[in-house]
């Protein structure tokens, strides 16, 4: 079995998804979970993009011990210096340099001839070599680059000192046959190719990212790049969980495997979805809510007789397990602790106490508290932004004959309670107007989504919002058995994040720098 290295770029290419904006604490939280998942390499950000990005990469580099941490850089000295600074505390640092090579990018974006592209990239790799032992080079838009020029670029990168050459299908244009053929050709034609690793980086514009990554593996790729849940620019990147499970399920066919701890897939997917606010569609392969659900009578009958009739993978493999212990309002601290351990949480006494109080609140409203409820509660509890405002109460008066009115009471840090009321076009609008009045923040609601985290009439609802204020965009989330309360909590969470963001100059890479 060949080992396929997994290069996760959830925190860089994934974070480039529209509306996604992770703060430093959230980046570290995801990085630590990726470490548990067993990724070999993780790209933590683009340090030259902003001081905030640099600080985020640095925080990840300090926290992660068992994976190589990577920073992205254009082929420029100041970008390389920024990565050097960001990764100064990393156990196993690596720089990822890129420069576009396709005729379209050379002509319209870079305005460079082939020779200039070769020289610029070579100078950058040689400069980076002074500081890094591990260098990955990406000829951006490799998929649309002339194959003989791509061979030349790869040969130059090897000579200059790259240890990995990554082949990005930047615009998701390739078909599996064509993409596989690039790897086959590089392997056959480029002198010294055996000295480096070849990597595949695919985008999903035509829905072919996973198929293309697998075709690359079949043709000699040593590494696959991608993100959890396939998040990323436009239609996203290769879903790493899809590649890992394809290799696991079809081992005999691919003769290759990853070192991922597959049972951490479900938890990682949930965490990424929660923190990015990018909801996983129910029918998404591997991690969608319906991926292991069987609806039709014929399928259910087959499953009851023999699971393999309709199930090619078991949900347990990715860490979805049936609960043995059902928690409710009569459950005590002992059962609660057991459940935490069962779900993989290792909390200190104070955290257990805080989470137990929240659990008791929920158990009063909901008969059975499921594993999903617990995870939603815990993840909300454990990943908190410093709170300036906290919700004390929300009251809504609604009838389909009159204008909805909302009254809100917020607790302001060290400043007592504030009460406000407002009318709106709907109940949520009225709540948001009352919160605006109470906080005196001038914000624009850019996105609102609601999702049921669990099933049944008493399910927990999770609301995600994106708020904008000038150049800043932040996400907020709230969980409750009541969707109006969840809506209020999400909005207040976003306002707290906005205030936190204004205090530090940290901005997302998308705010001020483009990847050229
Ligand atoms: O898609 C792409 O080309 C990239 C590069 C920076 C590798 O993300
Ligand atoms: Zn990309």
Automatic annotation (TrEMBL):
Signal peptide: none annotated. Its cofactor is Mn(2+). Pfam families: HCS_D2, HMGL-like, LeuA_dimer. Its EC number is 2.3.3.13. InterPro entries: 2-IPM_HCS-like, 2-isopropylmalate_synth_dimer, AIPM/Hcit_synth_CS, Aldolase_TIM, LeuA/HCS_post-cat, LeuA_allosteric_dom_sf, LeuA_bact_synth, PYR_CT. GO terms for molecular function: 2-isopropylmalate synthase activity. Residues 390-516 are annotated as: Regulatory domain. Mn(2+) binds at residues 13, 201, 203, 237. It catalyses: 3-methyl-2-oxobutanoate + acetyl-CoA + H2O = (2S)-2-isopropylmalate + CoA + H(+). SMART domains: LeuA_dimer. Keywords: Acyltransferase, Amino-acid biosynthesis, Branched-chain amino acid biosynthesis, Cytoplasm, Leucine biosynthesis, Manganese, Metal-binding, Transferase. Pathway: Amino-acid biosynthesis; L-leucine biosynthesis; L-leucine from 3-methyl-2-oxobutanoate: step 1/4. It comes from the Bacteria. Residues 4-266 form the Pyruvate carboxyltransferase domain. It is an enzyme of class 2 (transferase). Gene3D superfamilies: 1.10.238.260, 3.30.160.740, Aldolase class I (3.20.20.70). Belongs to the alpha-IPM synthase/homocitrate synthase family. LeuA type 1 subfamily. Homodimer. PANTHER family: 2-ISOPROPYLMALATE SYNTHASE 1, CHLOROPLASTIC-RELATED (PTHR10277:SF9), HOMOCITRATE SYNTHASE-RELATED (PTHR10277). Catalyzes the condensation of the acetyl group of acetyl-CoA with 3-methyl-2-oxobutanoate (2-ketoisovalerate) to form 3-carboxy-3-hydroxy-4-methylpentanoate (2-isopropylmalate). This is 2-isopropylmalate synthase.
């Amino acid at each position: 079995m060949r080992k396929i290295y997994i290069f996760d770029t959830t925190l860089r290419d994934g974070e480039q998804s529209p509306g996604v904006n992770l703060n430093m604490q959230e980046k570290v939280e995801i990085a630590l979970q990726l470490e548990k998942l067993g990724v070999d390499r993780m790209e933590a950000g683009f340090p030259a993009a902003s001081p905030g990005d640099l600080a985020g990469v640095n925080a990840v580099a300090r926290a992660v011990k068992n994976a190589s941490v990577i920073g992205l850089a254009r082929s420029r000295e100041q970008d390389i210096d920024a990565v050097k600074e960001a990764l100064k505390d990393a156990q196993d640092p690596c720089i990822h340099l890129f420069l576009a090579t396709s005729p379209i990018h050379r002509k319209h974006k870079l305005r460079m001839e082939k020779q200039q592209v070769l020289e610029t990239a070579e100078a950058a790799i040689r400069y980076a070599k002074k500081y890094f032992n591990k260098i990955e080079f990406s000829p951006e838009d490799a998929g649309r680059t002339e194959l003989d020029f791509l061979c030349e670029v790869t040969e130059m990168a090897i000579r200059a000192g790259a240890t990995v050459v990554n082949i990005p299908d930047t615009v998701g244009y390739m078909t599996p046959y064509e993409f596989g053929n690039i790897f086959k050709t590089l392997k056959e034609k480029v002198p010294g190719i055996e000295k480096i690793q070849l990597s595949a980086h695919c985008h999903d514009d035509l829905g072919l990212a996973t198929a293309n990554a697998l075709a690359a593996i079949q043709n000699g790729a040593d590494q696959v790049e991608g993100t959890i849940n396939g998040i990323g620019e436009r239609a996203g990147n290769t879903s790493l969980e899809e590649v890992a499970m394809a290799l696991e399920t079809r081992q005999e066919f691919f003769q290759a495997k990853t070192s991922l701890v597959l049972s951490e897939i479900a938890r990682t997917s949930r965490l990424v979805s929660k923190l990015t606010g990018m909801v996983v569609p129910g029918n998404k392969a591997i991690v969608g809510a319906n991926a292991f659900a069987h609806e039709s009578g014929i399928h259910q009958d087959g499953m009851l007789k023999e699971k393999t009739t309709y199930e090619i993978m078991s949900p347990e493999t990715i860490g979805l397990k049936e609960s043995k212990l059902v928690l409710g309002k009569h459950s005590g601290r002992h059962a609660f602790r057991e459940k935490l351990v069962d779900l993989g949480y290792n909390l200190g006494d104070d955290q257990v106490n805080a989470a137990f109080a929240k659990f008791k609140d929920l158990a009063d409203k909901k008969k059975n508290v499921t594993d999903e409820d617990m995870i939603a509660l815990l993840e909300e509890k454990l990943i908190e932004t410093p709170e300036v405002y906290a919700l004390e109460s929300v009251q809504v008066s609604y009838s389909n004959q009159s204008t909805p009115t909302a009254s809100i009471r917020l607790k302001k840090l060290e400043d007592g309670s504030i009460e406000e009321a407002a009318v709106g076009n709907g109940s949520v609008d009225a709540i948001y107007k009352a919160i605006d009045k109470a906080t005196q923040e001038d914000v624009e609601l850019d996105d609102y989504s609601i999702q049921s985290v669990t099933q049944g009439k008493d399910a927990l609802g999770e609301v995600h919002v994106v708020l904008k204020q000038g150049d800043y965009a932040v996400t907020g989330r709230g969980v409750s058995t009541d969707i109006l309360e969840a809506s209020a909590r999400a909005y207040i969470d976003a306002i707290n994040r906005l205030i936190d963001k204004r205090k530090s100059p940290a901005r997302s890479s998308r705010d001020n720098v483009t990847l050229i």
